[in-house]
């Protein structure tokens, strides 16, 4: 795996991790639209990039 | 022989994607240490959203720089793009704006070093000691750069990685300890805190956080495979900065919320230290408000303070190098007098440009001790420079719509014959509007910035009319600034590389010549792409072979003590690519190895097709070497 692909994978996973953390913390605080929205967007970005990477992008 | 050399020398692809990415992130990632506070002054509770808006503009700008740099892999960034798209006058405007950016980058980074060192001595957080500390940093770096220190690439890369890891750690700690969606919502008071006017100016100021986008462009001449390495590095930087810049402000505004202080809605991030705020050291402010206590807090403060000061010191140095490089490039194109690229007789560095543009000018900028002025002045220069870069890219797509590009950034929209670059159109409009906002909204910056541009243009007109005696729009390149025996002093050599003994032999001869004269060699391996494939097509086997041969070339150079810049070029025809690369690098001598051919009735050429083409078309001297063993 090239450096570029490995780095993209790591950064995409970081996005997913941040998203999960945002969702978890928001839930722990009793919810909130902003927290869930941000968490969902970070996860979507990370998963989207990983999917593109798997397709060779 | 070559394989023995390969074992002797430790090979490294110095400027591949990893090194480019680390260098660029080292620059861009350093900006958060001052941009967070400067942006919060204007954006208050909307700071996270403003960073997202500025980040989208940054993404468009990075795409423009990626395509432009692959198209013209030479130092200069927007100035170089403008030269090819418009003319020398526009190129000067871009270069002069970029110079302002470097001056302010040096000033800002140096000014914030003492703020983060205040963990050891409190007065360094405020005037006048931060000004004194900033001046000391600038003077030290100017002296070191005149003496000619070598930037330790490995150290810079290591620090960039540590910096990124630390920023991720702070985000993780912040998300767990202080992140609060309710506070972030409560922070926003539309139209009041921030006011609409301040919100408008906050976006261009937040672009300060993305200082360093041109770093990759400025290193383009030394990149091994620009078509792959440059876009990959830009894409990675984009993701890395988004990961931090879209999250750290969320943590910061959760830890330091907008509250009423002295009858005004504000955040401690936006207040100066004398009012108990953290505008001068925002990341330390975040650390101190994470809810940590005792020895852990103290250790984290010292760690973050020292790391930030070190990163900012290196960013200041990058600014000093950038200022001297752009000055050198401008003098080479006769935009400013020759004296600015004259080298110091002993240290061989452009001392005058370093003293003036990396020393005197940044010191003048930080003397008032006003961080907000410094921030908006940066935005003035950056938005102008970026707007010219975007406009240049759009114009190049318009004027040569059928040119086969090595790399085409996305997204695009095909209308008629032109593939319109939507990223550049969006980026150009966004940076243009940001520039207008800065000019309209901020009187001090307006007059200082416009004064800088007007003064530069007046000087340019006078210099070109009186001394160069050439039209303002004409590109005039100064001859290489070497000694009196110019004709026979080969300082820039180019060796086309292929597998085989003929090529190694040519490189041996070139390295011998270069070693005698302290010259530099560019080793060029041309990967010929068949007509039925795009120029950017993946050719794994050929690329692997090219990289092996270029490593070999570096090893041969090192065995002679000569610097060899490896360059992989993709083209349809090797001969044309070699001639073009030689012209672009102002090469004085091409040393090309050639197997001898038997002159039979059917073969009229002595050498191969490529060598013949180079001999016929190169605008510099060509030395053809043929192996002794091949003699009849």
Care to describe what's here?
The complex is a heterodimer of chains A (57) and B (632). The longest helix of chain A is centred in the N-terminal third of the chain and has 26 residues, at 3-28. The two termini of chain A are 13 Å apart. Chain A has helices at residues 3-28, 33-54. In chain A, 84% of the residues lie in helices and 0% in strands. Chain A has 57 residues and is mostly helical. By secondary structure, chain B is α/β, with parallel strands linked by helices. Helices cover 60% and strands 7% of the residues of chain B. Chain B has a five-stranded parallel β-sheet with strand order 7-6-5-8-9, sandwiched between helices. The longest helix of chain B has 39 residues, at 294-332. The A-B interface holds A 2-4, 7-8, 11-12, 14-15, 18, 21-22, 25-26, 29, 32-35, 38, 49 and B 16-18, 21, 168, 171-172, 175-176, 179-182, 184-185, 232, 235-236, 239-240, 243, 247, 250.
Q: Strand order within the widest sheet of chain B? A: 7-6-5-8-9
Please provide the count of β strands of chain A: 0
Uncertain parts of chain B = 1-13, 483-487
Overall mean pLDDT of chain A: 91
Shape of chain B: elongated
Give a short account of the largest sheet of chain B. 5 strands, parallel
Content of β-strand of chain B = 5-15%
Helix content of chain B: 55-70%
Oligomeric nature of the chains: heterodimer
Which secondary structure elements does this structure contain, and how are they paired or packed?
The complex is a heterodimer of chains A (57) and B (632).
Chain A: H1 3-28, H2 33-54
Chain B: H1 2-8, H2 17-28, H3 32-43, H4 47-71, H5 78-85, H6 88-117, H7 129-147, H8 153-177, H9 181-186, H10 196-206, H11 215-218, H12 226-245, H13 248-255, E1 259-261, E2 264-266, H14 282-288, H15 294-332, H16 351-366, H17 371-399, E3 412-415, E4 418-421, H18 422-441, H19 443-468, E5 492-496, H20 501-517, E6 520-528, H21 540-560, E7 564-571, H22 574-584, E8 589-593, H23 609-617, E9 621-625
Helix pairs in contact in B: 1-21, 2-8, 2-12, 3-10, 4-10, 4-12, 4-17, 4-18, 5-6, 5-17, 6-7, 6-15, 6-16, 6-17, 6-19, 7-15, 7-16, 8-13, 8-15, 10-18, 14-15, 15-16, 17-18, 17-19, 18-19, 20-21, 22-23
């Amino acid at each position: 795996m090239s450096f570029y692909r490995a780095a993209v994978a790591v950064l995409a996973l970081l996005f997913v991790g941040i998203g999960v953390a945002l969702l978890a913390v928001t839930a722990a605080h009793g919810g909130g639209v902003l927290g869930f929205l941000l968490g969902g967007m970070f996860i979507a970005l990370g998963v989207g990039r990983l999917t593109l990477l798997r397709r060779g992008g | 022989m070559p394989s023995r050399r390969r074992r002797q020398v430790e090979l490294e692809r110095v400027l591949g994607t990893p090194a480019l990415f680390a260098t660029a992130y080292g620059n861009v990632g350093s900006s958060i240490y001052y941009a967070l506070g400067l942006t919060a002054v204007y954006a208050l509770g909307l700071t996270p959203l403003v960073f997202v808006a500025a980040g989208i503009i940054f993404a468009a700008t990075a795409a423009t720089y990626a395509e432009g740099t692959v198209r013209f892999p030479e130092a200069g960034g927007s100035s170089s793009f403008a030269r090819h798209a418009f003319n020398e006058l526009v190129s000067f405007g871009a270069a002069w704006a970029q110079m302002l950016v470097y001056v302010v980058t040096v000033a800002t980074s140096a000014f914030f070093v003492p703020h983060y060192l205040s963990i050891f001595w409190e007065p360094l957080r405020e005037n006048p000691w931060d000004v004194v500390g900033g001046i000391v940093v600038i003077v030290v770096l100017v002296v070191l750069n005149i003496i000619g220190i070598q930037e330790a690439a490995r150290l810079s890369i290591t620090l960039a990685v540590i910096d990124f890891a630390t920023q991720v750690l702070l985000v993780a700690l912040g998300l767990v300890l202080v992140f609060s969606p309710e506070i972030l919502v409560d922070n926003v008071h539309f139209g009041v805190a921030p006011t609409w006017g301040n919100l408008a100016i906050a976006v261009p100021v937040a672009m300060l956080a993305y200082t360093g986008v041109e770093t990759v462009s400025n290193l383009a001449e030394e990149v091994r495979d620009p078509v792959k390495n440059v876009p990959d590095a830009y894409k990675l930087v984009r993701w890395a900065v988004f990961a931090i810049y879209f999250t750290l402000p969320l943590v910061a505004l959760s830890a330091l919320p907008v509250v009423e202080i002295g009858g005004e809605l504000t955040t401690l991030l936006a207040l100066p230290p004398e009012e108990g705020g953290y505008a001068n050291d925002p990341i330390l402010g975040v650390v101190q408000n994470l809810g940590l206590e005792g020895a852990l807090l103290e250790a984290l403060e010292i760690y973050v303070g020292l790391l930030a000061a070190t990163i900012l010191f290196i960013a200041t140095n990058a600014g000093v190098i950038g200022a001297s490089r752009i000055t050198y490039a401008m003098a080479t194109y006769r935009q400013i007098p020759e004296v600015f690229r004259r080298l110091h007789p002993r240290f061989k560095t452009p001392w005058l440009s370093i003293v003036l543009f990396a020393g005197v000018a940044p010191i003048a900028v930080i003397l008032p001790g006003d961080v907000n002025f410094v921030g908006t002045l940066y935005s003035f220069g950056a938005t102008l420079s970026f707007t010219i870069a975007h406009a240049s890219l759009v114009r190049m797509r318009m004027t040569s719509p059928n040119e086969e590009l090595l790399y085409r950034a996305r997204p695009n929209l095909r209308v008629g014959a032109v593939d319109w670059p939507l990223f550049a159109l969006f980026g150009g409009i966004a940076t243009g509007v940001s520039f207008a906002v800065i000019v309209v909204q901020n009187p001090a910056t307006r007059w200082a910035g416009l004064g800088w541009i007007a003064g530069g243009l007046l000087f340019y007109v006078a210099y070109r009319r009186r001394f160069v005696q050439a039209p303002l729009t004409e590109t005039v390149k100064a001859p290489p600034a070497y000694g009196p025996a110019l004709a026979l002093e080969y300082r820039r050599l180019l060796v086309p590389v292929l597998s085989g003994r003929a090529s190694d032999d040519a490189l041996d001869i070139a390295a011998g010549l270069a070693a005698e004269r302290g010259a530099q060699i560019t080793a060029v391996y041309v990967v010929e792409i068949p007509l039925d494939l795009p120029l950017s097509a993946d050719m794994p086997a050929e690329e692997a072979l090219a990289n092996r041969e270029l490593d070999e070339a570096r090893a041969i150079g090192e065995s002679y003590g000569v610097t060899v810049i490896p360059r992989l070029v993709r083209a349809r025809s090797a001969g044309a690519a070699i001639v073009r690369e030689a012209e672009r690098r102002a090469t004085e001598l091409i040393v090309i190895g050639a197997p001898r051919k038997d002159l039979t009735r059917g073969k009229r050429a002595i050498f191969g097709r490529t060598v013949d083409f180079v001999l016929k078309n190169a605008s510099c001297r060509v030395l053809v070497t043929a192996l002794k063993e091949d003699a009849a």
